[in-house]
Amino acid sequence: MSNKKQEHTSKIDWPVFGLSGGLLVLFVIAAFWNIDAVKTFVNSGFAWSSKYFGAFWQVLMLLHFLVGLYIAFSRYGNVRLGFLEKPELSTFKWLSIIMATLLAGGGVFWAAAEPMYHFLTVPPMHEGIDAKSQAAIMPALAQSYMHWGFLAWAILGTLSAVVMMYGHYHKGMPMKPRTLLYPIFGEKLNNNILGTLVDAFSIIAVAAGTIGPIGFLGLQASYGLSALFGLPDAFSTQLAIIIALVIVTTISAVTGLHKGIQALSNFNVRLAIGLIFFVLLFGPGGFIIDSFVSSFGFYAENFISISTFRGDTGWLGSWTVFFWGWFIGYGPMMAILVSRISRGRTIRQIIMAVAIIAPLVTTFWFTVVGGSGIFYELQNAGSVSEQLNNGGMPAAMIAITEQLPLASIISPLFLLLTIIFVITTGDSMSYTIAMAVSGEGNPKVSLRVFWSILMGSIAAILLFIGEGSIGSLQSFIVVTAVPVSILLLPMLWLAPKVSNELLHEQGLNKD
């Protein structure tokens, strides 16, 4: 098997490299040439995607979670993937990479802002509840849990990771998105146009989903440095931040999974845990605990109805469909990343980590940050909402942390956490895209450097263009998610199919 595998993975896939990198560069050139035309195109594509794929995505996300639970807690859960008896990474290091990669994609930006938005304007499925009231707390947090909880995580490396690890480790296919379709098309995927298109569109979707947060980091960090230290909140500051980020991201990606990426992820998770304990001990800890318990109960009780709500398509397009497009776009690449770091683990361990543990940690994190914002807003109306309305998401976190004890220390630490979270997404995705282009678990350093610099450069260019170009890229994510969602649909039956095959191969089907 190893010889066969090496044959598939020893070369850069130039058609995939050219198509994915070329289209991303073309997006930037078009934005330079006529940003208004790009906005019109993206907004039309966004509206079309939301109209014709919104309901499909909601069902797809829900089914991924339910089928994942079935596989994890059936006999299939005992199947060990990757021909290793002992995992390469410790459980903490493994979970740190998984958590840091996606939360960096927006969890810090949205953890402060989204619960506040829903508190100030109650989501349409919760009619009859007054905004800015005690009764609005549970719906606000529960809606945030739905967007960043079980369904969001289940699409990232559960069913798709099972199929990817089966195809790569057990059948010798390259570590590329096309391997997700191996159970249907077999090895002919290695040399046909379908495989090229699958890889290219998966790379474009995740690159867009990573460039957006890098750009937003420039905005948020620039705002934060201005508010905390008086630095100018201008493009020069944003550019300096992105250059520094690209340098660190590149170094981390070059040193690989077992050094830079792992070290940054570990540090970030430990810093987040430290900040959580500080807020619980010296901030509104009782309010946070009470709100988490009650809101999570509300979320669980209304899980299906919130997940399948279709009553206000305009609101859904701005919130749920946008998030679902973003996470679906990450799906194939997260499957590759999870597959790379999960060799030797069982199906149950992988699905439990991604679809249960990660969402629980994420929802509590949202309660700590966003719940604190709601608490301070209740105590002093306008203390968070005014800055949120005037300065947008970058202002929300600063408005919240400045009301905590030792704000002069805690606010910069939250800003540092934000920066490192985005770095961990950048380095992990640079590494993962390089894997997708080469098909191997340890891609060439030059490939990792190229993608790290390309994504940072595009973010900087879009910030320079201004006029909402970063926002246009974020909306473009939803458009790129359309073909990726079609790729992920077969995972609903392919994951149980390959799990059953491996169950028999490993002799685990006996009672």
Automatic annotation (TrEMBL):
Compartments it resides in: Cell membrane
Stated name of the protein: BCCT family transporter
GO annotations of cellular component type: plasma membrane
Pfam families: BCCT (PF02028)
Record organism: Pontibacillus yanchengensis
Residues annotated as transmembrane: 12-35, 55-73, 94-113, 148-169, 197-219, 239-257, 269-289, 316-338, 350-376, 396-424, 445-466, 472-495
Family: Belongs to the BCCT transporter (TC 2.A.15) family.
Bilayer disposition of the protein: Multi-pass membrane protein
MF annotations from Gene Ontology: transmembrane transporter activity
PANTHER family: HIGH-AFFINITY CHOLINE TRANSPORT PROTEIN (PTHR30047:SF7), HIGH-AFFINITY CHOLINE TRANSPORT PROTEIN-RELATED (PTHR30047)
